[in-house]
Structures are given as C-alpha cells and as structure tokens.
What we know:
By secondary structure, the protein is α/β, with parallel strands linked by helices. It has 2 domains: 113 residues, Gyrase A, domain 2 (2-Layer Sandwich), CATH 3.30.1360.110; 254 residues, Alkaline Phosphatase, subunit A (3-Layer(aba) Sandwich). It has a 7-stranded mixed β-sheet, sandwiched between helices. A 4-stranded antiparallel β-sheet has the order 11-12-14-13. The two termini are 33 Å apart.
Amino acid sequence: MVQPATSAARPDEPVPLALDTALVPEYGTGSLADLLPTLAAGQGVPGLGAAIPELTPADRNCVFLIDGLGWEQIREHPDEAPYLFSLLSGSRGGTGRPITVGFPATTAASLASVGTGLAPGLHGLPGYTVRNPETGELMNQLRWKPYTDPQQWQPYPTVFQLADRAGIHTAQVSSPIFEHTPLTRIALSGGTFHGRLAAEERMDLAAQQLAEGDRSLVYTYYSEVDGMGHRYGVDSDAWRGQLMYVDRLAQRLAEQLPPRSALYITADHGMIDVPFDEESRIDFDEDWELRAGVALLGGEGRARHVYAVPGAEADVLAVWSEVLGDRFWVASRAEAIAAGWFGPAVDERVVGRIGDVVAAACDDVVITASEREPHESAMNGMHGSMTPAEQLVPLLEVRS
C-alpha cells in the first residue's frame, strides 16, 4: 500500500515520483466496478462474471453507497461509527474489507463504475471535468454541463438494466432530485426509481423493495457525508455528526433485511483535508509556469487533466513534472493509460477526454484555480487521487 510522500511545496530540485508507486485501482479483482457484476452474476444474470469471488451469491442484494466515506475514515472514528466499525472486525457477524474505487476517485467516475460495472476507460467518465473532443469544451460530468447526449457519451448498458431484463426485481432508492439527471440515466437506471427526501424513508423503502422479488437487486444512496467533508473537512464536528447519522442509517437498513438477503455498504471515494496555506494550495490561475502552454485545465484539485496547446504537450509535461514531480504523480496521457490508471483498456472515444498530462496528488496538496473554480478552490475536504485515504473504500457485508 502506498504511503503518501511529504516534502516542501516547491523544492529547488524536485525528484519526480515513479509512476509505479501510485496505488493503481485493482480493476477486475477488487474495484468498485467489480461489485454489481459479481452480485448480478450470482443471481444468474447472463454475460457477467464474479470478479470478487469471495462474495457468496444471495437471492436478494442491496448496495448502500455512502458518498465520501473512505475505509480509513471509518477505521479512525470507531466512536462515531460503532456499527460500521463493528463490521470491519466482524464483531456483529458481518464482514468487511477495503476495495479500490478507480481513478479518479471522484463521484461521477465512481457512480458510473458502480452502475455499469466498467472502469472509467470504458464507460468514459474519467474525471470531474474533462474535454469533449468533439467541441473542445470542458464538460462537467457530475452536473452534465454543457449538455451532451447521454447515450452517446456513455453507450454501455447498466448492470441494473441487464438484471431487469433477466427478470430480477431491480430498483434504485435515492433523493428525488436525482431521478431524471443524465448521470442517473447512463449509470444507475434500470428497473424502477423511488425518490424519497428523508434518508430514513430510503432505508425502509430499500428493505421493502428487496422483499418485492424472489431475486432482487436494490441500490440506495446518501450524499451528505461528502457534503460536510467538502464544506468543513473530515476533522470537523459537522462531518462527525454526519458520520454518526449515516452509521444509524446503515444499522436501520441492516436490521430490516428480508430473508435470503445480502447488504453491501460501500462508498465512491474517501477524502482528506488540505490546509489553507500556499505550500498546500497551488493556484494555477496565479502560477505562470503551470499555465504556460495550457489550453484547458480539467479534472479537480487532486486529479488534474491538463490539455495543452497543440504542439506544446511535451513542454507542458516537462514543466509540470519539474514543478510538481515530488508531490504529484505526473504522467503523459499515454503513460497514464499504459499504467492502467483508467482501467486495463481505454475506448477510442475516451482517449481524447483524458488530459495530455495527468497529475494526481500524493501529498496533502491541491492545484486550485481561484478564478475559474472559486467554489471548488474554497473546499476544505478534497479527493480524486490514488492515496489510500481517497482510493480505499469499505465493502461491508451483512446477511440475513
């Protein structure tokens, strides 16, 4: 497991990090993209394989995804999350292990991996914001702006759609604001959607939906752990309060499981707090070296896609490696793809969405953009990269 490096922000002679020291996601054996295909294969859905073989098949499967709750955050907060912590050790009869989420460790990429069972290089959502090769514009893949036809952007069927076609009772239980979003359409659709504002009602309804079929596949979601982490940091009372609340939600759902059910509690990424100082927050909009030769800055603070002016790709890579190389893994597009950051394969339609240069933080540091991204630059908690705190999420199992 990679230990994040520490050093000064702009040393005189930075030593670039070897790319093979990054915690590359375990695509195909232990990543978030492998969860639903494994569960659905155990229910008899054709064309899917059990990539996580230690998961015993169940007639009824429920996935509860908690946005922003990493494996390390649960381990570090046993008092605030007694139920979830107990599942790590198996003291309540459940089991737990960490899995990797995929790169980048961000919501749009991870939810697409959950729902499609594919790595970002195939489903095509390889970042928070990425360049659309057809228009040359940056596209925000979480908010889907500017609008792009969802089915052209992500053409593969979801696991939910495959399960629904195979006769499995399939449902998503989430906030009603997500029902008609493009991200839901291309990543989490299939079967029926049930919108509830109150999180307790979602837990109750998810259990009811599990009982609706002899074979059921149900997904439910909670977002505010991530929201409090971004606003106040994962060392804040507000974040701890959300952790305590979601711990009770998980127990509420687990205690209502119908017979022959398995509940899997997981997340889309972890999170770290980044100090508000010049060493930890490098402002792209005020750094002439990093801006030189750059046409577009995509991604997010800890996982940047850098799109160069045509002909300047090699120079941009050299400068970013020199300036950031001991605090970021800095790779060319070809190097990042070859290293497997986006999965074992990358569709041709996705290649141009990946930056000419990709920079992933290994230290407690971000590349902000105070003028272009004022909201994101002001966040306390951040994620996106391949450190254990961001990349490892829980896979906690409870069976009835």
